[in-house]
Write a structure and sequence with these properties.
The structure is a single chain. This protein is mainly beta and 417 residues long. The protein contains three helices and 25 strands. It has helices spanning 2-20, 233-236, 379-416, and strands at 24-36, 42-55, 68-73, 90-97, 116-124, 130-137, 161-172, 176-179, 185-187, 190-193, 201-207, 214-220, 226-228, 243-245, 254-262, 265-275, 280-286, 292-300, 305-312, 320-321, 326-327, 331-332, 338-345, 357-364, 372-377. A seven-stranded mixed β-barrel has the order 1-2-3-7-6-5-4. Strand 12 and strand 13 (226-228) form a beta hairpin. The longest helix has 38 residues, at 379-416. The protein is elongated, with a radius of gyration of 35 Å. The termini are far apart.
Length: 417
């Protein structure tokens, strides 16, 4: 049992070790050309180019000589340390990064005010994590002190080799979270920097659809000031900026943004929190002037739900989907969840007068492609049962009476003999 437990613990570690042996990845580079038009306005033209991210010492040559290659030197914040799983599930995107007018020097060894920056983001295609690394490139020329840095960006040739070093990594292992109501959930946010950080700011914001962004938490290492709650301040020193949402509500749904600012860099990761509450389904019959079968889905979120009613008149036959189904209007409860009812009226006709079994099928996003099924015996079956029950009782009584009478007659005949 101990050996089995150790092997389980080593599985993710083995995945990390495997990726550390990877020497290069194919990426997509979003290149930007920035200029000022005749009216004095800044315009940008984006182009998408194939590139290679190569993990190696800057002195080595590019492994694929016909592509743009980013040669990333070894550092304390090697993004490969944060990767789990096979490489073929990774999507790699490289973008230019602008500091604007900032001329703050990156404080680690070799940093200059003229550094040019790129971001490299690794996304797991199954949504397991997103990792963004900041790459520092020292250009051969200096930039102007009187205009934004993007006017001095280097031009990247078709087979350009760019020597870079990773200086900061920001990641989340929960890019998309699904959780029910009245639950506690943690939104993961982790970062690492290549030096001891004297000036660090961590912030969390919530962006709901159609509303202004709301600040949930902020922390400044230089002032020690903390605003809001949900993040363990002691964990920030170790690179853990995760946010805990204590009791989820419908209003908790939205896009959460974890931001880490280390001058001159400002990185962020987006985490989508989805509130998913499954419906409570019931299927009943109503004995009215016109009997009906009612299927109710209660307490579900989000709004969209599908309710289908079926009818089965004899065993072995495929249930027939009913088309004359009526729906109530959606009812919204105080907690933000919804309810909906679907019903069918059983009007007197040859097809409804007999015995039938009715079933209800409910589909909702919370069921992840599955369905909730309920079945009930139709009112016609109970009507038939009530009509035949007195006859059955009379028949049984008559059989008992005849048996007793014959037995009494038989006993009297035996005595006379």
């Amino acid at each position: 049992m101990k050996i089995f437990t150790v092997l389980l613990c080593l599985i993710p570690y083995a995945g990390v070790l495997g990726f550390l042996q990877v020497q290069w990845l194919r990426c997509r580079l979003t290149d930007e050309y920035v200029w000022t038009n005749a009216e004095g306005h800044v315009e940008t033209n984006n182009s998408y180019r194939d590139a290679v991210l190569q993990f190696d010492n800057s002195g080595n040559s590019a492994m694929l000589s016909d592509s743009i290659t980013f040669l990333v030197a070894a550092s304390k914040v090697d993004m490969r340390k944060f990767v789990e799983g096979p490489v073929d599930r990774l999507q790699c995107d490289i973008h230019r990064y602008s500091k604007g007018m900032s001329r703050v020097r990156w404080p680690s060894l070799g940093g200059t005010v003229h550094d040019i920056w790129f971001t490299c983001t690794l996304r797991h295609t199954a949504g397991l994590y997103n990792i963004t690394s900041f790459l520092r490139v020292t250009p051969a020329t200096t930039m102007s002190a009187h205009q934004p840095d993007f006017f001095s960006w280097l031009t990247i040739g078709v087979k350009e080799k760019i020597n870079a070093s990773a200086v900061m990594v920001l990641m989340t292992r929960s890019p998309s979270v699904r959780v029910g109501l009245q639950k506690e959930t943690t939104l993961h946010c982790q970062f690492a920097v290549d030096h001891k950080v004297p000036h660090l700011t961590v912030e969390w914001h919530l962006q709901r659809h159609g509303e202004r962004r709301t600040k949930l938490f902020s922390y400044s290492s230089s002032s020690g000031h903390t605003e809001g709650s949900g993040v363990a301040v002691k964990g920030i020193a170790g690179g853990d900026a995760s946010l805990t949402v204590p009791i989820t509500k419908v209003s908790s749904e939205g896009m959460y943004v974890c931001s880490v600012r280390v001058p001159p860099l400002n990185g962020s990761v987006d985490i989508a929190l989805h509130i998913i509450e499954p419906p409570d389904v019931s299927l009943t019959t109503k004995e009215e002037q016109i009997p009906s079968v009612v299927c109710e889905a209660n307490g579900f979120y989000p709004l969209d739900v599908e309710i289908d009613l079926f009818k089965e008149t004899s065993s072995g036959q495929r249930p027939e989907k009913l088309g004359n189904v009526l729906h109530s209007s959606h009812l919204q409860h105080h907690d933000g969840t919804h309810s909906l009812a679907a019903f069918v009226r059983l009007r007197p006709s040859p097809q409804d007068s007999g015995c039938a079994i009715y079933s209800c099928r409910v589909s909702h996003v919370s069921l992840q492609g599955l369905y909730i099924h309920k079945s009930i015996i139709g009112p016609g079956c109970w009507t038939w049962f009530h009509l035949t029950l007195p006859g059955l009782v009379c028949l049984v009584l008559m059989i008992i009476f005849i048996a007793v009478t014959r037995r009494h007659f038989f006993n009297k005949t035996v005595r006379r003999r």
